[in-house]
Design goal:
This protein is of the alpha+beta class. The protein has a single domain, classed as Gcn5-related N-acetyltransferase (GNAT) (Aminopeptidase, 3-Layer(aba) Sandwich). Helix content is about 30%, strand content about 30%. It has helices at about 30-45, 55-65, 65-75, 125-140, 155-165; strands at about 20-25, 80-85, 90-100, 110-120, 145-150, 170-175, 180-190. The chain has a 7-stranded mixed β-sheet with strand order 1-2-3-4-5-7-6, with helices on both faces. Strand 4, helix 4 (about 125-140) and strand 5 (about 145-150) form a beta-alpha-beta unit. Residues about 1-15 have low confidence and may be disordered. It comes from Larkinella humicola. Keywords: Acyltransferase, Transferase. GO terms for molecular function: acyltransferase activity, transferring groups other than amino-acyl groups.
């Protein structure tokens, strides 16, 4: 018998090669690259066809500037993690925020993933999982019980990712996105 009988004809196999990314804590020197990445990933995740371009651009003007990023990097309640490609480009990031749990988590020592984004070109290569695992490791090291986040109810890809990572919905709230009021789900994961 030949090798062709080892796998049925209707099953395909896929070899996925993971690119080695470095994940580290962001510094003030990363402010420009981090701002550029935040703007780009905001457009990719929430721009057309998901939202009108003018709504996204107005939000970007309000929320993302190099000065704003510098202030956030200096905030002792926040930590940014950046993912650096082998070509030394910032291709993903996460922002952890301490001491702001939603009412459903009151009384629990909880830390928020306020942002977790990777470039569309990097989705599917394990980078999001690697960033999430780094967030979990940091939460564990800092003694947190729960990791939580908010995700737009229409962002099915992100919701699916968070569910695969073990997060469960624990509530919701409205998020003001420009002139539009959108609903975000709160999701949580026990830190073990």
């Amino acid at each position: 018998m030949g090798q062709e009988h080892l796998f049925p004809a209707n099953i395909t196999t896929k070899l996925v090669l993971k690119t080695p990314f470095q994940i580290r804590t962001a510094t003030l020197e990363d402010a420009v690259a981090l701002t550029d990445l935040a703007i780009r990933t905001m457009r990719e995740a929430f721009g057309p066809p998901h939202n009108p371009a003018e709504l996204v651009e107005a939000y970007i003007q309000e929320a993302f500037s190099v000065e704003q990023t510098r202030q956030e990097l200096l905030d002792s309640q926040a930590t940014f993690l950046v993912s650096i490609s082998p070509e030394q480009e910032v291709v993903g990031y996460a922002k952890l925020r301490r001491n702001r749990p939603p009412r459903q988590l009151k009384g629990q020592h909880a830390i928020e993933i306020q942002r977790l984004y990777v470039l569309d070109s990097q989705i599917g290569n394990g980078l999001g999982r690697q960033l999430m695992e780094n967030c979990l490791d940091r939460a564990r090291r800092e003694g947190y019980q729960v990791l939580w986040l908010g995700v737009w109810e229409r962002n099915k890809r992100a919701i699916g990712f968070y569910e695969r990572m073990g997060f469960q919905q624990c509530g919701w709230h409205y998020f003001q996105f420009g002139h539009e009021r959108q609903r975000d789900y709160w999701m949580k994961k026990e830190v073990q």
